[in-house]
Design brief:
- The protein has helices at residues 2-12, 15-31, 35-51, 55-67, 72-87, 92-102, 109-115.
- By secondary structure, the chain is mainly alpha-helical.
């Protein structure tokens, strides 16, 4: 659906629509744990948002990229870029939540222990 909409937005020259569709495709890739595809889509959407000077979406895209950053330096750079964009729209709520929401998500200790064979599968779920 995003692909069809993307084609239409490109035909009519809607940069906002094009960027939103590309970002949506990045979100889908991220939900599928395809971080490389998500990163490519977010990187593709970012200059479009910058072109139309859309600070909320610029910040949001940098935050997405911070979550899937390959290293701490990139994560910090993306968080700072998101902060810079969101400072332009003066929304303290976004700025306050930025550091926590941009941190990489980690599996709960129980799942991590299961993944590394420290606890058996039978102990993951308790019977009702």
């Amino acid at each position: 659906m995003y692909e069809e909409a993307l084609s239409l937005y490109r035909q009519v020259g809607s940069v906002q629509g094009e960027a939103s569709c590309i970002e949506g495709l990045g979100d889908i890739a991220l939900r599928r744990s395809d971080h490389e595809q998500a990163r490519q889509r977010y990187e593709e959407a970012l200059p479009l948002y910058e072109h139309i000077q859309e600070p909320y979406s610029i910040g949001l895209t940098h935050r997405h990229l911070a979550r899937i950053a390959l290293d701490e330096n990139e994560r910090n750079r993306r968080v700072q870029a998101a902060r810079h964009a969101w400072q332009r729209i003066e929304c303290p709520t976004l700025l306050k939540e930025l550091d926590d929401s941009a941190r990489p998500r980690r599996a709960p200790p129980v799942l991590s222990s299961f993944a590394f064979g420290k606890i058996p599968k039978s102990q993951l779920l308790e019977p009702f």
